[in-house]
Amino acid sequence: MPVLSTRTGAESETDVLCSPGRGDVLDVVGIGFGPSNLALAIALAEYNQEVPEADRVSARFYERQPAFGWHRGMLLKDTTMQVSYLKDLVSMRNPCSRFSFLAYLQARDRLVDFINHKTLFPSRREFHDYLEWAAEPFRGAVDYGREVVDVVPVEEAGEVTHFQVLTRAGGQQAEPAVQRARNVVVAGGLRPRLPDGTSLSDRVWHTSELLGRLETLPAGPGQAPRSFTVVGAGQSAAETVAHLHGEFPDADIHAVFARYGYAPADDSAFVNRIFDPEAVDHFYTSPDDVKEMMFDYHRSTNYSVVDIELIDELYRRLYQEKVAGKQRLHVHNLTRLLTADSGDEHVRVGIEFLPTGRRDVLRTDYLVLATGYRPTDLHGILGSVEPILCTDKGRVRVNRDYSVESTLPGPAAIYLQGPTEHSHGIASSLLSNTAVRAGEITKALVKGLVRDIDAPRAPALTAAAPV
Ligand SMILES: Cc1cc2nc3c(=O)[nH]c(=O)nc-3n(C[C@H](O)[C@H](O)[C@H](O)COP(=O)(O)OP(=O)(O)OC[C@H]3O[C@@H](n4cnc5c(N)ncnc54)[C@H](O)[C@@H]3O)c2cc1C
């Protein structure tokens, strides 16, 4: 049976595991293969390396993208991570892991150069390369281009013994395939949030698709866009404004947002402790009103805020244009989006200046909605499991170990990575706790599987060494 390989001996060529048919109930199926489930795959593989073969955990992951990709549409030139590289996929859980960002730098022969760079915040492009590098050894444990469309609980004698995970590749018409699993870990990430009444088109985009859209713009003489309008006041909005302003030197860029101005993200040291593993315990054990208070106090660590350096840079550009007497960066603050009518030639963007109620229409070539994200729609992924999940005020009840409370007992469990802000706090959808959370879920999975030790096992999750 293939095991997590080290760089030595016969194990090193192993590329992965879990062939269906060799014991067809897997211990774990992961939905989505972004950083959260990648961190889990690493934690499981590292666990498997440490235990006797009979105790190893089998796992398989389904990812609807055709290949590994982390917010590809926003891998803008000059953007950096908003989290220290030490909060990579592993270091907070296992600083000795060979999947750390430092190990990646060494593999890429850039360790010394990075040290000289004196930064904790690599570029987003470099971090993407790190994630791809870490994901590559798990290629054989991931079905890319395959979407999970439902999870069906299988009940025997009043207990849920396992789930049937229905997956589909190649569109709605394709016949779903079924994989059985004792545990399911949902890490489906975020979905673009659109303002009411807007829909996407060739001229109305969400930031999540920005780079892909820009690549398809006509490039011939006289065809360059003359104007863009960007709605939103968060980090993605400010990055988009800066990017478009820099890349299209002849275009007018309109920034539209309801705030008075871009507000700085609070990443000061004491406040940053809200992202510590210990803060998850504090949040989890707090009564609802304290949870709300923590959120309200510290929203400005993550929501609708912008890195101060970027704010300063945008203001510098705005001011220099004033000095030069040629303004093409236009800030419409205290302004809300009313309508967006997409035509063949341009978009008519209806806006309202809030202090006076004055309404205007901006004619713009392209409208970019930097209006954020909403959590994964669990209903879409977990459809058939929903009736057995316990809820409270319309939200699923999540145990401290990230498993969802179920109305039916049994060894099978669903775990959530991401949509747990209501139970585990503000770091839930971010990278800060990814490594630690993956370790906690691994522990919980192993504990659950030990209870179920007599069940037949599928082959274990392994990974080849990263190169
Ligand atoms: C532009 C941008 C920059 C960010 N930068 C930072 C940062 O610097 N620091 C930070 O802490 N956080 C950052 N974030 C927050 C972000 O949520 C995390 O970085 C990270 O992506 C969370 O990882 P994840 O695996 O939970 O979700 P994702 O990275 O979103 O991955 C989820 C994956 O699940 C797949 N999927 C979804 N549904 C299904 C399904 N039904 N079947 C199969 N596959 C499915 C998706 O295709 C996706 O690949 C950023 C977010 C954005 C949008």
UniProtKB/TrEMBL annotation:
<keyword id="KW-0285">Flavoprotein</keyword>
<protein>
    <recommendedName>
        <fullName>L-lysine N6-monooxygenase MbtG</fullName>
        <ecNumber>1.14.13.59</ecNumber>
    </recommendedName>
</protein>
<keyword id="KW-0503">Monooxygenase</keyword>
<dbReference type="Pfam" id="PF13434">
    <property type="entry name" value="Lys_Orn_oxgnase"/>
</dbReference>
<keyword id="KW-0274">FAD</keyword>
<dbReference type="InterPro" id="IPR025700">
    <property type="entry name" value="Lys/Orn_oxygenase"/>
</dbReference>
<dbReference type="InterPro" id="IPR036188">
    <property type="entry name" value="FAD/NAD-bd_sf"/>
</dbReference>
<keyword id="KW-0560">Oxidoreductase</keyword>
<comment type="similarity">
    <text>Belongs to the lysine N(6)-hydroxylase/L-ornithine N(5)-oxygenase family.</text>
</comment>
<keyword id="KW-0521">NADP</keyword>
<comment type="pathway">
    <text>Siderophore biosynthesis.</text>
</comment>
